[in-house]
Automatic annotation (TrEMBL):
<dbReference type="InterPro" id="IPR009061">
    <property type="entry name" value="DNA-bd_dom_put_sf"/>
</dbReference>
<dbReference type="InterPro" id="IPR047057">
    <property type="entry name" value="MerR_fam"/>
</dbReference>
<feature type="domain" description="HTH merR-type">
    <location>
        <begin position="9"/>
        <end position="78"/>
    </location>
</feature>
<dbReference type="GO" id="GO:0003677">
    <property type="term" value="F:DNA binding"/>
</dbReference>
<protein>
    <submittedName>
        <fullName>MerR family transcriptional regulator</fullName>
    </submittedName>
</protein>
<dbReference type="InterPro" id="IPR000551">
    <property type="entry name" value="MerR-type_HTH_dom"/>
</dbReference>
<keyword id="KW-0238">DNA-binding</keyword>
<dbReference type="Pfam" id="PF13411">
    <property type="entry name" value="MerR_1"/>
</dbReference>
<dbReference type="GO" id="GO:0003700">
    <property type="term" value="F:DNA-binding transcription factor activity"/>
</dbReference>
């Protein structure tokens, strides 16, 4: 804007032509005290000088950035700084953007599931859960799974420590995973499945049958899954030599000193014990948690597990 003599004054119409703002808007700003007239004509018409023109440009800029009239007034009165206004409004916009992204992700999940109204309400409530409530949901789930039972505290502490940590700016996939995860841990069937697993775990601990098989499974599980995958890829059946070799390895590693690893009854019992913890929903629990937290993806091992169980039972 070229320099203008300090004595230059403008009518509201001239301000409108120079700034592109409607006369009605400029008059409103003036009435609100944001743009007091420099002087008035004898007929009472408002006149504005170059300083008022610059002030009007600042008001327009702040309003275009979404800053409300009270904050604009405070800035013009130097009760706050533009920097402070920008800081607070950036924070507010970040929160608004976060909420809009959550809504978009919920709506995408609604489209994918073709959800009914009640499910939409539930999904929206789940999506809006604060971090503290998300973590408490998991803590309460595992507390119920071990209540009144003699369980390995170290193992269950690890289970409880893995919390869903949804980022402030989640991807639609992360939010969908969180919705499914929250539904899963509240599902009565899943809760009963994990509780049954915990009860069996507790019973074997009390009987002194727990430590050795569990340690063997922890140490050898990855290798057994690899062998099962190789057998499946080669087209072998569970009762094939490859399947039986795997069953032999599992039974030998898992049998207690008082058990015969070749005994079919012992192997069948081992298979039952493994099957209790092989619920596909338990695997899905960890897959969803990995997606929510941005961990490496966890591939499904259900085919390998079923092959392993069938091999043990076929021997």
């Amino acid at each position: 804007m070229p320099d203008m003599p300090a004595t230059t004054v403008f009518t509201i119409g001239e301000l409108s032509r120079r700034t592109g703002l409607p006369v009605k808007t400029i008059r409103f700003y003036s009435d609100e005290g944001l743009l007091p007239p420099t002087q008035r004509t004898g007929a009472g018409y408002r006149l504005y000088d170059a300083h008022a023109l610059a002030r009007l440009e600042l008001v327009r800029t702040l309003r275009e950035l979404g800053i409300g009239l009270p904050d604009v007034s405070r800035a013009l009165a130097r009760e706050t700084t533009v920097r402070d206004l920008a800081t607070s409004h950036v924070d507010a916009l970040d929160e608004q953007i976060r909420r809009l992204r959550l809504r978009r992700a919920v709506l995408r999940a609604v489209l994918k599931r073709d959800s009914e109204l009640e499910e939409v309400k539930l999904m929206n409530r789940i999506a809006q859960m604060p971090d503290e409530e998300r973590r408490r949901l998991v803590e309460e789930f595992w507390a119920e799974m071990m209540q009144g039972l003699d369980v390995d505290p170290e193992f269950y502490a690890r289970m409880q420590s893995a919390k869903p940590d949804l980022p402030d700016d989640p991807t639609p996939e992360q939010l969908e995973a969180w919705i499914e995860f929250a539904e899963l841990v509240q599902d009565p069937g899943f809760r009963q499945s994990i509780r049954t697993m915990s009860e069996r775990h507790s019973a074997t601990r009390e009987a002194g049958e727990y430590e050795q098989p569990t340690k063997a499974q922890q140490e050898n599980w990855a290798a057994w899954m690899t062998d099962a995958r190789s057998a499946l890829d080669a087209g072998h059946a569970p009762d094939s030599p490859a399947g039986q070799a795997l069953a032999d390895a599992i039974a030998t590693a898992s049998a207690r000193p008082d058990q015969d690893p070749a005994d079919p009854a012992v192997r069948y019992k081992m298979a039952d014990g493994i099957a209790v913890g092989a619920d596909p929903r338990a695997e899905r629990y960890w897959q969803l948690l990995a997606t929510i937290n941005g961990w490496p993806a966890i591939p499904s091992r259900q085919e390998e597990v079923q092959f392993l169980l069938a091999a043990l039972r076929a021997s």
